[in-house]
Specification:
With about 350 residues, the protein is α+β, with helices and mostly antiparallel strands. It has a domain at about 15-185 and about 270-315: Double-stranded beta-helix (4-Layer Sandwich), CATH 3.60.130. Helix content is about 25%, strand content about 20%. The chain has seven helices and 16 strands. Strands 1, 2, 3, 4, 6, 13, 15 and 16 form an eight-stranded mixed sheet that branches. A four-stranded antiparallel sheet has the order 5-14-7-12. The chain has a two-stranded antiparallel sheet with strand order 8-11. β9 and β10 form a beta hairpin. It is globular. Mean pLDDT is about 95; it is low at about 1-5. The protein binds 2-oxoglutaric acid (AKG) and fe (ii) ion. This is TauD/TfdA family dioxygenase. InterPro entries: Clavaminate_syn-like, TauD-like_sf, TauD/TfdA-like. Belongs to the clavaminate synthase family.
């Protein structure tokens, strides 16, 4: 298999803001943070983020635009040197379901960039529908296959079960773990698929798999319908799978899923995120996960903040009864959302 070169974005996967861009973003984020009522989930505040996203530094805007055209071989973009809180990052939270409601400077910067890419959205049954969510280790949840855990997090498509899962996932680092060993892992379908024999790829395209809701969703299992884990173009497909919640419906499909997982293990890239780094993963083409680390629950643990972006807001209208940014986790029975 080969990916036609004209569809591959030649720009690099790492973009570092220079000091003038860092300062301009800090100033823009500070003005957004000052917009009343200073709450990330307020519709008026989100409207201000959308409007002000047009004032981001021009070189950054161009790079974001290219990324939404084509996310490159690694299907990710790492932005570096984003502004952090001038007074220092507060202690890392450690409660389950922690979210960022207040408009801090880093949260404002994250929302500005997310709103420049598309529409920042959330799901009502996950992290109470907050747009900016904390990714922090939680005492007693070490072995949890979700972002509150600290054991190895299996490779997954974010919200793989959902017909309108995020197009992009943004993960911004406020603080890494004490030993600087927790690594975000990203595996692009463009690196995985060439490792698979054609008959295995053909099986992965067939509706012989079920993907259930992940542990982070407060939802009953049992509503999944058979689907392919590879979809779309056979030369440059999309990939949707979560190795913690995908089941194959027959033996041949199970073998193909195992070979896919092996290819993923050989393909992932590791990112040791530093404070001020923001990684965007194209959730249609890349899986992500995380290596293990040891939390201390002393206020200095690893802390990421996460957003989800949709590139086509209209597509989810039936799942947003009040028209805002938060999607129903389950589609109403009389609507069609599958893509
Ligand atoms: O902890 C990480 O680096 C990734 C966690 C994750 O998969 C997520 O928050 O969606
Ligand atoms: Fe994730």
């Amino acid at each position: 298999m080969s990916v036609p070169s004209e569809v591959m974005n030649p720009a690099g996967a790492v973009f570092r803001l220079d000091s003038a861009e860092h300062d301009a973003l800090a100033e823009l984020a500070a003005s957004l943070a000052g917009v009343s009522p200073g709450l990330v989930d307020d519709d008026g505040w989100v409207a201000a983020a959308r409007r002000l996203s047009g004032d981001l530094p021009v070189r950054l805007r161009s790079r974001l635009r290219e990324f939404t055209w084509d996310p490159g071989t690694d299907a990710m973009l790492l932005l570096r040197n984003l502004p952090l809180e001038a007074a220092g990052t507060p202690p890392t939270p450690s409660v389950p379901g922690s979210v960022q409601r207040g408009a801090t400077l880093p949260a404002a910067a994250l929302m500005l960039i997310g709103m420049a890419l598309g529409e920042v959205v959330a799901f009502d049954k996950e992290k109470s529908g907050a747009l900016v969510q904390d990714v922090v280790p939680v005492p007693g949840m070490e072995a949890f296959q979700g972002n509150a855990g600290s054991v190895k997090l299996n490779m997954h498509t974010e919200n793989a079960f959902h017909p309108l899962r995020p197009d992009l996932v943004g993960l911004m680092c406020l603080r890494n773990d004490h030993e600087n060993v927790a690594k975000l892992r990203v595996a692009s379908v463009r690196r995985i698929v060439p490792l698979l024999p054609a008959p295995v790829r053909a099986v992965l395209h067939e509706p012989r798999f079920l993907i259930e809701a992940p542990a982070s969703f407060d939802m009953p299992a049992g509503s999944a319908r058979p689907r392919g884990v590879l979809t779309g173009s056979h030369d440059d497909p999309d990939l949707t799978v979560d190795f913690s919640s995908t089941v194959a419906l027959d033996d041949e499909a199970a073998d193909a899923l195992l070979l896919l997982e092996k290819a993923v293990e050989r393909s992932y890239r590791e990112l040791l995120l530093q404070p001020g780094d923001l990684a965007f993963v194209d959730n249609r083409m890349a899986l992500h996960g995380r290596s293990a680390f040891v939390p201390r629950y002393d206020g200095a643990d690893r802390w990421l903040q996460r957003i989800f972006v949709h590139l086509d807001h209209r597509r989810s209208r039936a799942l947003r009864p009040t028209g805002g940014q938060v999607l129903l986790s389950a589609a109403p029975a009389d609507t069609t959302t599958e893509r």
